[in-house]
Amino acid sequence: MRIDKLLANMGYGTRKEVKSLLKGGGVRVNNEPVKSPKTHVDPEKEHVTVMGKTVEYRKYIYLMLNKPGDVLSATEDPHDLTVIDILQPEDQIFEPFPVGRLDKDTEGLLLLTNDGQLAHRLTSPKKDVGKTYFAVIDGEVTEEDVRSFSKGVELDDGYVTKPAELTILKSSNESEIELTITEGKFHQVKRMFEAVGKHVTYLKRVKMGDLPLDEELDLGEYRELSDKELEYLLTITNLQD
Ligand code: URA
């Protein structure tokens, strides 16, 4: 990788700023001063310093966001704020993207990473990673709905969903439920309830596999995944080797 790209990616300034840093002699690779921005380095093998301090290279970033209900799960949009817009610039530098999509009005657990392989595996229907949602439903959710969801329901386009686990938390004319699905069809939870004649009025993702949303995170807040959380995701998607 070019040294100017590496340093810009690691937050040492824009490519232009990095160029003058190099020119000024502040950058060394394996203790040799490097002045040309075109110099190629292998950040995993070579020792790079800026003003005598080691550049801690990292390729991937893994973030857990408590998505608010007014931002898009996209990397850019001409009209709306996206989940990338609300990250700090030092995290945006890594060019993360959302793992799967939540509707604009859906809140809760959204992972953001620049690790394409992990993102792909987490969203692949083959991997069967459960996504658990809390929802408020306009209408009384019944045991019959639980049975229908456990078999799979037919959506408006004729698609029959995979079995899903519905738990009724509160059943009244405004019910509260938890639902775990292993696929991610467009508006899936909302459409599954429409299939049984009910309407989702609030939706929040609370878990992916056994990884819960950190309830310490307020809406719009995020943090890096812990090593243990990341290891868990790598394990369930068989990426360990
Ligand atoms: N199902 C939905 O209907 N919307 C979401 O955002 C996620 C799952």
Task: Explain what this protein looks like in three dimensions.
This protein is α+β, with helices and mostly antiparallel strands and 241 residues long. It folds into three domains: 3-54, Roll (Structural Genomics Hypothetical 15.5 Kd Protein In mrcA-pckA Intergenic Region, Chain A), CATH 3.10.290.10; 62-125 and 218-236, Pseudouridine synthase I, catalytic domain, N-terminal subdomain (Alpha-Beta Plaits); 130-208, Alpha-Beta Plaits (2-Layer Sandwich). It has seven helices and 13 strands. The chain has helices spanning 3-9, 15-23, 89-92, 116-123, 143-151, 188-195, 227-236, and strands spanning 27-29, 32-33, 48-50, 53-54, 62-67, 97-98, 107-113, 131-138, 165-170, 174-181, 199-208, 211-212, 222-224. Strands 5, 6, 7, 8, 9, 10, 11, 12 and 13 form a nine-stranded mixed β-sheet that branches. It has a four-stranded antiparallel β-sheet with strand order 2-1-3-4, with no helix packed on it. A hairpin with a 2-residue loop joins strand 1 (27-29) and strand 2 (32-33). The two termini are 25 Å apart. The model has no long low-confidence stretch (mean pLDDT 95). The structure holds uracil. Uracil binds next to helix 6.
